[in-house]
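Hello Y.,

Per our agreement to keep a running log of every chain we model this quarter, I'm adding this entry. I've kept the format consistent with earlier entries: sequence first, then predicted structure.
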Amino acid sequence: MRIKPTYLIILLIALIISFILLGNFVSHHPVPLFDHKISLFVQKYHSDPLDKIMLGISIFGELPYSLLLVIIIAGLFHIYKYKRESYYIASILLSGLIILGVKNMVNRPRPTAFYVRLVEINRFHSFPSGHVLSYFLFFGFMIILMRTLKDIPKALRRAVTYFSWFLILTIAFSRIYLGAHWFSDTIGGFILGLICLFPLCYFYFKKETGTSP
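Predicted structure for the entry above:
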C-alpha cells in the first residue's frame, strides 16, 4: 500500500519545522535539565567492556571510517552491476556538508566533564548528532535497497538488514553513553537523517518507476 504524495509532503514539512524549532531551542538552552538527567541515567552503569562496545558501535561515524564505508559499499554495488544504486549511495557523502553547516549555525557546545562522563572527546559542535544522521541515512537506505533488490541472495539481504537495524537502534544510546552528545542532539540527528532520506528515496524510486513514490 503506497502512501499518498500529499501525506509525504505534509510529513516532510512537519519534520523540517520540528527540526528548526528544536535547533532554536537548544541554541538558547545548551544544557536543558531533561538532557542532563537522561545522560546521567544512561551513564549510571558503565564499565571498560561496555565502553569498548559503545565505541565500536560508533566507529562507522568516525573519519576516515565513515568515508571508507560509503566508498567501499558504493564500489561493491558498482562492481556487481548495481551502478545506479552505487551513485545514490555515494551521494550520501553530501550529508557531511549539511551536518557541518547546521552544526555551525546552531553552535551548541558539546557535553563537558562538568556534566557527564566523557569517554570520547569530539571537536565539532554538538547539535545535531552527525553519527545518528549518517547512520539513519546510510543504513536506512541500505535497508530500503535490501527490500527492493530481490535478486540479491536472501541470506545476504537479511544479514545486511539486521545489521543495519542494530546500528540504527543503538547509535543514539552509544552517543549519549560516550558523553559525545545530549539526547536532544540525537533526536535532531534522527529528524535530519529522515529529512535527507526523503529526497534520496524520492528520486531513486521516481526514476526507477517513472512515477512518484
